[in-house]
Write a structure and sequence with these properties.
The protein is 70% helix and 1% strand. The N and C termini lie close together (12 Å). It has 337 residues and is mainly alpha-helical. The protein has a single domain, classed as Farnesyl Diphosphate Synthase (Orthogonal Bundle). A hairpin with a 2-residue loop joins strand 1 and strand 2.
Length: 337
């Protein structure tokens, strides 16, 4: 699927990144180097580079400020806070999952060591709160509380994800709840934070929050598919990375609980003590398709996207904001990386 570029993404490098770089200057040199490497601002030796992320969450926060009738500049600290919180989670997630690639280059822990990556993640989370603490507007305190609430959810989702690795009885409802906490919570936060910071009416903030929750679920379901069927050249991760790690992502849990012969064959494959080889990964992908899981997950991703857009359509938004939010939603749910 080809999606037209969304203009608000172009504002992330010009409005958000300079403020993040300024905040990184508050860190000690060691943590600053690891954090800057992870964010894509430099290579392992400290030389400047450009290998950053997609900027989805900060773009949503800038649009959230516009939804409140303010300029995107008024939402910069909200965008910075949510982007730093997101990258805090990525640094820790890579350590916990022992992923060695992110954005087509070695992960921070693979370069600097697990302890350094964990500390850099902690530092980014503190800087996220600094960004909102620097705000003198009345909405700053509400935005800080909202960020804390959603990061609590994110951490709970990550804890559940780790717990699933040790269990063979994970239900589909549990897995969907984990995805809602681990991914949708911060996406919902991004969609509401700029509006909160700018003092938007509660109805607007709630509607944006619900839109973000559904968008986050659709985003995660697409991500789960890419973790199984995505092309390494596009995703920056090894082929079948989730299967190789025997993760309990939504497509996998759907198959394992489907009651189909393919699902039972996948359960037996997952239960084997040996390391899965390339032939096993191909077999696992075929079993997922035979169980109907690939089609079911795509259908759920589409359903959440439609529900999110319905929430958006019910809001009275300034001219152009609906179109930009709609375009960004279609972009992130129709991606191939």
């Amino acid at each position: 699927m080809t999606i037209a570029p969304v203009a608000c993404l172009d504002q992330v490098p010009t409005l958000v990144e300079p403020r993040i770089r300024d905040l990184l200057g508050r860190l000690d040199p060691r943590n600053g180097r690891v954090a800057a490497y992870h964010l894509g601002y430099c290579d392992a030796d400290g030389a400047p580079s450009a290998a950053g992320g997609k900027g989805i969450r900060p773009a949503l926060a800038l649009l959230s400020a516009r939804a409140a009738g303010q300029s995107p500049e008024r939402g910069v600290d909200a965008a910075v806070a949510v982007e730093l919180a997101h990258n805090f989670s990525l640094l820790h997630d890579d350590v916990m999952d022992q992923d060695t690639l992110r954005r087509h280059r070695p992960t921070a822990w693979a370069v600097f060591g697990p302890a350094a990556a964990i500390l850099a993640g902690d530092a980014l989370m503190l800087l996220a709160h600094d960004a909102l603490a620097d705000e003198s507007r009345p909405g700053g305190a509400k935005a800080a509380r909202r960020l804390a609430t959603d990061v609590h959810r994110l951490i709970a989702g990550q804890a559940a994800d780790l717990d699933f690795e040790r269990r063979d009885d994970v239900s589909l409802d549990e897995c969907l709840a984990m995805s809602a906490d681990k991914t949708a919570a911060l996406m919902s936060c991004a969609c509401a934070l700029g509006a909160l910071l700018c003092g938007a009416p509660a109805a607007v903030t709630r509607g944006l929050s619900r839109f973000g929750e559904h968008l986050g679920m659709s985003f995660q379901l697409v991500d789960d598919q890419l973790g199984i069927w995505g092309e390494p050249g596009r995703t920056g991760k090894p082929v079948g990375s989730d299967l190789r790690a025997r993760k309990k992502s939504v497509p996998i849990v759907h198959a394992l609980t489907s009651g189909t012969a393919a699902g039972e064959a996948l359960r037996a494959l997952y239960a084997s003590a040996r390391e899965l080889d390339e032939a096993d990964l191909v077999l696992a992908g075929r079993l997922l398709e035979e169980s109907g899981s690939r089609d079911w997950v795509q259908g759920e991703a589409d359903r959440h996207l439609i529900r999110g857009l319905d929430e958006l359509a019910a809001l009275e938004l300034p001219a152009g904001v609906y179109d930009d939010l709609f375009g960004l939603a279609r972009l992130v749910t129709g991606r191939d990386h």
